């Protein structure tokens, strides 16, 4: 099961426009905090001829990062003001699991460390959106579940989130969206295989 949204890409947190690293950061999408980005711009300004495949790969990398950050900006701007995107992602994952999920499983799906996940869960638990439940027979292990309040909250947010995403992507034709989804699916599978081969 895929996470709804991944973590910020390496090198593109606060230094690449704090807006994308969390709430309350500087506005804008300069993207000039990345050494790779600065190098590419310097190369273009010198009029260096494009060499494939290295420059093609670099150009693709930069466009993926820019699209990712722009999408995050738009999604975050539409979230309920009292929720962060990682919190919304965790709630959405638990909404698909009527019997709850283990912290380890959620950590894998959301692509976050166990330490980061604990912090997210702690804050949601304090707000009565999530609860920890001991596993029968082994109280050292827990499952995470939505509270009734959390379930009601997610049920209200998810349809609006789907409409927001459709609006954000409305300038791209449905045919192009389907093609992009297929290509990114193949790309993700390729990256997963590379990870397993290491």
Task: Set out the fold topology.
Layout: H1 35-45, H2 54-78, H3 85-95, H4 103-110, H5 114-126, E1 130-135, E2 138-146, H6 148-168, H7 174-197
Antiparallel strand pairs: 1-2
Could you describe the 3D structure shown?
This protein is mainly alpha-helical. It is 57% helix and 8% strand. It contains 7 helices and 2 strands. Strand 1 and strand 2 (138-146) form a beta hairpin. Helix 2 (54-78) crosses helix 6 and helix 3 (85-95) crosses helix 6. The radius of gyration is 19 Å and the shape is globular. Residues 7-33 have low confidence and may be disordered.
Please sum up the structure shown.
This protein folds into 2 domains: 70 residues, no CATH class; 119 residues, Winged helix-like DNA-binding domain superfamily/Winged helix DNA-binding domain (Arc Repressor Mutant, subunit A). 57% of the residues lie in helices and 8% in strands. The protein has 7 helices and 2 strands; from the N terminus they run αααααββαα.
Strand content: 5-15%
Overall spatial form: globular
Mean pLDDT: 81
Total beta-strand segments: 2
Return the CATH architecture of the largest domain. Orthogonal Bundle
In angstroms, what is the radius of gyration?
Answer: 19 Å
